[in-house]
Amino acid sequence: MKPAAISFFVLISNVVFSQNRSYTAFIQLDTSIKWAAECDKVINLSPKVKDYSLKKWYIDKLKTGSVTAYKINNETRVLSSYELSMPGLERQEWLKDLSVVPGRSKKPQDWYVIDKIKKENDQLFTYRAGQLNESADSCCGCDESDAFRAKQIITYKNARFDIYTVFISPLCLRKTSERLSDWYPLCNVAYNSLPKLKMLSPGKDVVLLNTDELNYDFSSEANTYDSILTEYRPSLIRFLLQDLQKGKIKAIDDQTGENISYKNFFTWKMTVDTIPVYDINDPTRIARFETIRAERDPEDFSRIRIVQDYYFDFKNEKLFSVIKSVILMVPVRFVTGEIRGYRPFCRLVPKL
After folding, report:
1. Which residue of 62, 168, 210, 308 lies most exposed, with the fewest beta carbons within 10 A?
2. pTM of the model
3. Torsion, CA 51, CA 52, CA 54, CA 57, rounded to 10
């Protein structure tokens, strides 16, 4: 690892966009958007065809020429462009004889750095990649993974979800402590200034890179990566229930395939108890027994899992996310009430 890595950055020009508008401005202008959120995710863009490695494509451009990169104003969400070149970019020495692979968990940020010789045993990992570090500290090398940060805007309107990818960032893995490492964005690229821009038909320039599964958390607890953008932070479940009641969407049990009705939504597969009802005139006598079913708290429905296809337009440098399925998640609790994890509850399917 060379200490003079920061000198690799060559800023050729600095051009501010003619339209100095926030990339979230369209949310206020589109009155049909009921709910919207901004998310930062570590996504796996490992290509189905090795020749289409997006990480290698950008690294080669940085080493032999330049790319158009983007700075973000965190207060105004306005991007400005500049040209970036990194002719001295090299693979980090600590990654010698190591390979970076995605983990099997449902958390895409959990990647593993393993010894190539011992890779048949995935328990023998050397480091685990965890947090997405927003530090502006430069990177002085690059791993072999196709891990990218994706700045996404998720919207819900007309009973459908949509994902607009604002930009992506090639990620570099840097060792931070024993058996741990963090992702560092190399630069922001592939800016899409038009959220309604339609993807061209797949072909030579537009390639399906990968299919990935991402979890999103919109609970009231502080979350670094997912935040609601619509005013007053309305709960997503409120709009989902409205459309379920109107028949605009279906809620399908993820395990059995059964339809979950609006009426039974909060009590679906909940525990049933039989309680005694005492005579109002004689508190010592049981008049009858009643069966009651427990109900879920609306706050339980704050997580969604989205399976999405990633298409990259190499000619125009845009990443498109095509949603394949949306799954509503619910917490699994210990007897004490503490959350021990989450499981799929239902698939949300819009009416055709």
Report:
1. 210
2. 0.82
3. 50
